[in-house]
UniProtKB/TrEMBL annotation:
The keyword Signal does not apply. Residues 132-305 form the D-isomer specific 2-hydroxyacid dehydrogenase NAD-binding domain. This is D-isomer specific 2-hydroxyacid dehydrogenase. GO terms for cellular component: cytosol. CDD domains: Mand_dh_like (cd12168). One of its GO terms (molecular function) is hydroxypyruvate reductase [NAD(P)H] activity. The lineage of its organism: Eukaryota, Fungi, Dikarya, Basidiomycota, Agaricomycotina. Keywords: NAD, Oxidoreductase. Belongs to the D-isomer specific 2-hydroxyacid dehydrogenase family.
Length: 340
């Protein structure tokens, strides 16, 4: 389906794409009419969508340019939020981020509607941050920094830094981010093994070894999580799974917080089963488990792995590319649910 006619299709946007190049926005404005609403609470945005549909609709697409620095976000993107758009013929939704656990994809698929994410923008940034956090955890940098800030000098009685060249990294989820993390850490001499729903083609493994989930648990010195959050992965790492790992494991998570049962992680940290944990995401964001905050063996970041000076621009560009492709061909570039 190609969306071309003498009458321009209408697109509803949440927030203006204020970081994207002006010429990119101008090109799309030649293809469609844009109407904008502002970010607010879920219920307020739902009301604004309903009002926009009534007064200006119907819309063929709804795209979300989240203001990441302010809350609340209009999550979840569910029937209560986007129902009026769906009921009047909207066929494409897109928002920023590789993850889409906040989107009711099942509902959209049942209505023949595409959801498009932005997998490329966060991949390199998250992989860079993950590599940094792996090295921080291997070296115990948070513990050493705490000593220095307390006026204490190097204490050789504490666990020494682990040598990356003698360590095995287990990656759970070998998508765009997992592949980049694998390449990054092999540069530091780590052996990389990975578990994925399906084995990668050999030319994409680039030195990483495909193993079972159980092998990841018993062979890894560091486990880095890069799987999506869904019914199968929620609390994938729980008390029973921690007990099956080798003693002194390091856990790094830059995927989604609820992949880990945080109570079980805190217990494993307290017992020494888990030597250290480096986390950018949490089960009940923006709250962080008090046991993780209190632990001397955690490196914590406030879901900021992708946050650098260019990420908003690049994310907005990737959303606009989804929209441009949809307007030209009827299908966005990065489709999560292929309903064609």
């Amino acid at each position: 389906m190609t969306l071309t006619s003498d009458i321009k299709p209408k697109v509803l946007i949440l927030n203006a794409p204020d970081k994207a190049p002006i010429d990119s926005v101008a090109k799309l404005k030649e293809m469609a009419e844009f109407y904008s609403i502002e970010q607010a609470s879920h219920d307020a945005v739902a009301g604004r969508i309903a009002e926009a549909v009534k007064e200006k609709g119907p819309f063929v697409a709804f795209v979300v340019f989240i203001n990441w620095w302010s809350r609340p976000f209009p999550w979840p993107m569910d029937e209560a939020l986007v129902g009026p758009l769906v009921e009047t013929g909207c066929k494409m939704f897109s928002a920023g981020g590789a993850g889409y656990d906040f989107v009711d994809v099942k509902y959209m698929s049942s209505k023949g509607i595409y959801y498009a994410n932005t997998p490329k923008m966060p991949a390199l940034r998250t992989a860079d941050s993950t590599a940094m956090m792996i090295l921080q955890a291997l070296r115990g940098s948070s513990e050493r920094e705490a000593d220095a800030r307390a006026g204490k000098w190097f204490d050789p009685s504490k666990p020494l830094a682990k040598d990356a060249r003698c360590s095995t990294l287990g990656i759970i989820g070998m998508g765009n981010i997992g592949k980049l993390v694998s390449e990054h850490m092999q540069h530091f001499g780590m052996k990389v093994i990975y578990y994925n729903r399906n084995r990668l083609p050999p030319d994409e493994e680039k030195g990483a070894e495909y193993v079972s989930f159980e092998d990841i648990l018993v062979r890894s010195d560091v486990i880095s999580l890069h799987c999506p959050l869904n019914e199968d992965t929620r609390h994938l790492f729980n008390k029973e799974v921690f007990n099956r790992m080798k003693d002194g494991i390091i856990i790094v998570n830059t995927s989604r917080g609820a992949v880990i049962d945080e109570n079980a992680l805190v217990e494993a940290l307290d017992s020494g089963k888990v030597l250290r944990a480096a986390l950018d995401v949490y089960e009940f964001e923006p709250q962080i488990h008090p046991g993780l905050i209190a632990s001397k063996h955690t490196t914590l970041s406030p879901h900021a792995a992708v946050a650098n000076e260019t990420f908003e621009r690049d994310q907005q560009m990737e959303i606009l590319l989804n929209l441009e492709s949809f307007l030209k061909t009827g299908k966005p570039t990065h489709v999560v649910n292929d309903v064609s």
